Amino acid sequence: MQLPQKHSATGTTIFTVMSALAQKHNAINLSQGFPDFHIDERLSKALGDAAASGFNQYAPMAGLPVLKQEIANSFRRRYGVQVDADSEITVTPGATYAIYTAFTAILSPGDEVIVLEPAYDSYIPNIEMNGAHAVIVPLSAPTFSVDWQRVQDAITPRTRSIIINTPHNPTGAIWTLDDWDQLAAIVRNTDIIILADEVYEQLVYDGARHHSVLEHEELRQRSFALYSFGKVYNNTGWKMGFCIAPQELTQAFRRIHQFLCFTVNTPAQYALAQHLAHDTRPIHEVMQRKRDYFLELMKDTPFTIHAPARGSYFQVAGYERISDLPDREFAEWLTREYGVATIPVSAFYSNGKDDKLIRFCFAKKEETLADAVARLVKLPAL
Ligand SMILES: Cc1ncc(COP(=O)(O)O)c(C=O)c1O
After folding, report:
1. 118 lines ligand 1 (CB under 6 A)
2. Counting CB atoms within 10 angstroms of each CB, which of 22, 60, 134, 373 has the fewest?
């Protein structure tokens, strides 16, 4: 059968490959980005209560008003920004869906989208599924900061959008206010639309704070900001998220959304609305403790930590003192021989660029992290 090839990514994603390999070798899985601990009991109870109370039919297309209002309250409380619940927020089945929907709302065949690599793996296929092209600008290792001259040089008359991600997966880098200003200067006097993937917005460490595109008055007018409840409440399997954008962009987003999935899981929306209203504690502290614990343990291994993660729940590490294998082979070898699964960072580059780095996910129970590192300390250094 002849079927169209909608994007250039071929084969199974590395996340599926590494998780399958982890299972096969009974390895500790620090590869895929999801927590291995329980969610807040009040949240799971709220989900059960919502279903038992009969909230089981279609919610309004853009999301339950009560949830959208709680999201707006949360952004006002935490960032001091006013977001209009009705005209600017759309509840989605996760951030990946929201990214695809935003691209579909704005892209035409032949358009170009600038992608900073390493990058989350859905961006480029989503761009290509819309007949557009990704224009790659590499981030500068080892800090993975943005080289703004290279972004400027990548702009052409066909550039329709730039997708950015802070805090960053896989590197844990975060954007400064200056980064946002640099971006604003580049897109000023163009009609380029920004997609700001801020799914790890609440996971920023060492007293730093996340700067949201919503705080940047100029950029906000031309941006979709994309969020995931999964990364905030440790319930990635619920696949719940939302998009915040100015009215005109939100209307374009909803024109696609209403014919893609129309509406999102009703009991989960009720549960999240209730949780958002009552649980206003900062959540980065728990994850920072895990990061610090993991980094402390890693000092006894031959891995090199070039820069501690400043955000997200990932830590990148170099293995130059252990092996000179390409990163994918090294990650497979580590899973097979030492029983710890990770992700090779080359998987986040469309050209497979290999900086000999692997990514650990530290959003795990302390005992999981301790068991994993107990295996890694046995690694002989070259
Ligand atoms: C940068 C980034 N964006 C988006 C997502 C996806 O979020 P969701 O599970 O809500 O689709 C992830 C998940 O790993 C991510 O790391």
Report:
1. no
2. 60
Number of Cβ within a 10 Å radius of residue 136: 17
19 CB near ligand 1 (under 6 Å): no
Residue 228 Cα to ligand 1 middle (Å): 7
Task: Give yes or no for residue 199 CB within 6 A of ligand 1.
Answer: yes
- Beta carbon of 47 within 6 Å of any ligand 1 atom: no
Pick the atom of ligand 1 nearest to 94's CA.
10
Q: Which residues contact 36 (CB under 8 A, 6 or more apart)?
A: 29, 363, 364, 365, 368
Torsion from C-alpha of 21, 26, 31, 33, nearest 10 degrees: 120
Q: Which domains does the chain have, with CATH numbers?
A: 14-32+283-376 (3.90.1150.10), 54-278 (3.40.640.10)
Is 165 near ligand 1, meaning CB less than 6 Å away? yes
Task: Name which residue sits closest to atom 14 of ligand 1, judged by CA.
Answer: 33
pLDDT tens readout for residues 312-339: 999 999 999 999 999 999 999 999 999 9
Indicate whether this model's pTM tops 0.90. yes
Atom nearest to 168 CA in ligand 1: 1
Beta strands in 141-257, from DSSP E residues, in sequence order: 159-165, 193-197, 223-228, 241-244
Which residues lie below 8 Å from residue 240, measured CB to CB, with a gap of 6+? Answer: 91, 92, 93, 94, 228, 229, 230, 264, 265, 268, 269, 272
